[in-house]
Amino acid sequence: MSTTEKALDIQGLEKTYAGGVKALKGINLQVEQGDFFALLGPNGAGKSTTIGIICSLVNKSSGTISVFGNDSVTQEVAAKSCIGLVPQEFNFNQFETLLQIVVNQAGYYGVPRKIAKIRAEKYLKQLELWDKRNANARELSGGMKRRLMIARALMHEPKMLILDEPTAGVDIEVRRSMWAFLKDINQQGVTIILTTHYLEEAEMLCRNIAIIDNGVIVENTSMKTLLSTLNLETFVFDLASGAKNINIPEFEHRAIDDQTLEVDVPKDSGLNVVFEEFSARKIKVMSMRNKANRLEELFVKLVKANNTPSTEPIAKGEPT
Amino acid sequence: MNIAANRNFVALKTIWVKECTRFLRIWIQTLVPPAITMSLYFVIFGNLIGKRIGEMGGFSYMEFIVPGLIMMSVITSSYSNVSSSFFSAKFQRNVEELLVAPVPTWVVIMGFVGGGVARALIIGVLVTCVSMFFVDVKIHSFFVIVVTLVLTSILFATAGLINGIYAKNFDDISVIPTFVLTPLTYLGGVFYSLTLLPDFWQVVSQANPIVYMVNGFRYGFLGVSDVNHWTAIGLLIVFNIALLSVAYQLLKKGVGIRS
Hints:
The complex is a heterodimer of chains A (320) and B (259).
Chain A: E1 8-16, E2 22-31, E3 36-40, H1 47-54, E4 62-67, E5 70-71, H2 76-81, E6 83-86, H3 98-108, H4 113-126, H5 142-154, E7 160-164, H6 172-187, E8 191-195, H7 199-205, E9 208-213, E10 216-222, H8 223-228, E11 232-239, E12 252-257, E13 260-266, H9 272-280, E14 285-290, H10 294-305
Parallel strand pairs in A: 3-8, 3-9, 6-7, 7-8
Antiparallel strand pairs in A: 1-2, 1-4, 4-5, 9-10, 11-13, 11-14, 12-13
Helix pairs in contact in A: 3-4, 3-5
Chain B: H1 3-25, H2 27-30, H3 32-53, E1 55-56, E2 59-60, H4 61-91, H5 96-100, H6 105-131, H7 142-166, H8 172-186, H9 199-205, H10 209-222, H11 229-253
Antiparallel strand pairs in B: 1-2
Helix pairs in contact in B: 1-6, 3-4, 3-6, 4-6, 4-7, 4-8, 4-10, 6-7, 7-10, 7-11, 10-11
């Protein structure tokens, strides 16, 4: 198989549901091998339908999908073997043990039981679930269930992992450990496609991005390029005190509290003026950072530009 | 074995073992009730009432009803095993585990139907063992017994699968057994010989497929039957081909499982 082949190549994909709802209106999308790709969009935009069609859970109306050069219809077995899916909803048998769930999943892909057991130990250990291997899945916490679905998706060692909101509803500690795990397997060469409502997550993990809204792709570019289209960059300064007394006429700024100041700095401007103001007022700067919601601003802008009212606001760092 | 055949064999074995593990895990719900129910049938219909009925088809009433009761358990258990298992897989959405994997449709069917057949055969053996406490079980043709038993359990396991495919809620998987399967079984000659019926109802009864299964099975045990046992086996093969084809087409199209 050529390394120039796309991990995923979608052409003219359309889906009209039985009730007449047109969920996808001819989308084209390419994902490079080894990429960490974000597929974002408001609720009902068509993300899950797209993933469902790629993974054979939803019948397409028209269009073609190729996975590592394998057509999803004519080379269905090869295409399916390349994909591991971590769905949005828990969809394992709640009455089975973790070991049964992951070993059975490997069996569906033709992995012999002996090898499946070795892999089960590897992935359950990596995802910190090995101690629970003989517990029923229903006994797990939400974060454990999410990790179980990742372990299950990896059992046939797919070249591409598709995660549909994998960190929804899990605490920050588990989320961060999942990010580290996903980064690690991506570095090992696994292509990852991620949908998420945590835009900070997409910004932190993904190299390329597509934004889908109302069944059409409204943006498809690299994360870097997309973020560079922002004219303003917001810096957050953690000060010893005195944030409320700051006055910098050149830039928009706001004091979040007396120790925290946010300053919107145009891309072609330096930060010297800000530091001069701090020095003039003898304010001690404890630390500074970029505000990590740049993608969120772009996301809202692009979706608005598509002239589609979002039914639910995208909250900062919170599940919707 | 080539790669595809090997992959399919592993997948089939996985589904079948999973299905068997499921009903064995809940054996108290799946294996014990038929044995208890049939014991009650043997005690009440066979032992108490049967003594007053006298002979039927040249055999004691108890001997006469044993094959039918075994067949009744086999039909019910093969059907309910697959309908409930497949619907549960849909309900919990773990049928998606199969849909995303490269498992051919026929492997899915064989795996689920195989699970239903396994449960039916275990029930068949259990009920036969129970019947031995009440009657001296005779075997006229072991071949006919095995062929009828296996074909019947495949047929009703497939019917259960089709029910599971169409079912949208738990009521949907109990409607057919309650309103179709049970009446057809009771009217299928389990408790009586068709020759006892008026001519008109004898003809009507021949439209009931369960008549052929019960009588074919009875022939295997007693050597007597209201219908020709080869006709019964032939019809079972035809019904099996028809239902398996329907199940294949439904799953291939994704009816009830893909939007």
